[in-house]
Amino acid sequence: MGREILFSKDGVHLYATDVEEGGGTVLTLALNRHGEKNVINPAHTSAIVSALDVADAHPRLRDTNDKAMIVTGLSLDDGASSSDPRPPPPKFFCNGLDLDWMMKNGDSVPSMIESFCSGVLARMLVLPYPTVAALNGHAIGAGLFIALACDYRVMRTARGFVQWPEARLGMRLSKGFAELSKAKVVGGGVGGGAADRDVLREGILTARRYGSRDALEAGLIDGECPVEELYGRAFELARGKLPESGLGLDNFDPKAYSQMKVEMYTDAYRALRFGKVEDVPMSRI
After folding, report:
1. Which residue blocks in the chain are alpha helix, DSSP H?
2. Rounded Cα distance, 254 and 131, in Å
């Protein structure tokens, strides 16, 4: 399977890998700003948005509907096979919002968060093909929200946590973050119903850190594996979810697929796409 890099800017890379058996293309959005733990700031947001623009419009991808995307903090070595990350694996998927930047740029914080919500999370949430988050390490705050915006999540064992850190930081959830959490956690917890509410209550109100086993039992992720197997596991999952060659959806329509996601996650999409940081907690968007 040949892999081609389609975009690279400011530590964000977009790769395309053609699947030999059955066809289809698996994209990989690699977040490799590891010097700053992949935190979210304007530069990172801008680079991710540009990568998503390329995924929408690149000539190599424009004429095929048989696509899926992996989002990861792993670094991919151009000389390696499609299932091998470059060692040693980074220990951060995304360590949340850039608190240092926020302290220095207080007046610009609302617009930064709103750009991240509308330009990255809302867009990822309703991409017109399946998405898989490969969590190579800590996914804290904004990192957890990136993972939740994806359709499926696989996490490394032994090291790394997912966490809503807001209670620990003395912050509230924005409307977008809250609605995304409710959309993706409810219906996912083991046992459903009350179990899901327990996950939200425990996770948000206590800032609990979930390792891979606890996250799996809570329904926050769909699978766990050693980090050496993580990209391969995510790749196989993405390949199996390719709309045409993987799922056999003969009449697949990417526009309808995206609209279906909007219908499933309406409150989350509206809050992420149109919400403002200043919106009061009891507001409806």
Report:
1. 42-57, 59-62, 99-104, 109-116, 122-125, 142-149, 166-169, 175-185, 194-206, 212-217, 227-240, 254-264, 266-274
2. 13
Closest Cα partner for 136 from 87, 188, 209, 77?
Answer: 87
Tell me which residue of 86, 114, 9 sits closest to 52, measured CA to CA. 9
Reported as a single tens digit per residue, the pLDDT across 35-47 is 999 999 999 999 9
Q: Which residues pair with 225 in a beta bridge?
A: 156
In whole angstroms, what is the distance from residue 2 CA to residue 26 CA? 11
Distance, in Å, from the CA atom of 173 to the CA atom of 156, rounded to the nearest integer, reads 26
Look at residue 87 in the predicted model and tell me its pLDDT. 56
Beta bridge partners of 3: 17
Mean pLDDT lowest for which of 82-86, 205-209, 232-236?
A: 82-86
Q: What is the sign of the dihedral through the CA atoms of 33, 83, 215 and 271?
A: positive
What is the amino acid identity at position 189? G
**Among the listed residues 150, 136, 128, 121, the one whose alpha carbon sits nearest the alpha carbon of residue 57:** 128
Most confident among 125-129, 168-172, 195-199 (mean pLDDT) = 125-129
* Token pair listed for 104: 């220095």
Q: Looking at residue 83, what is its pLDDT?
A: 52
**Tokens at 14, concatenated:** 């977009």
pTM of the model: 0.93
What is the maximum alpha-carbon separation in the chain?
Answer: 52
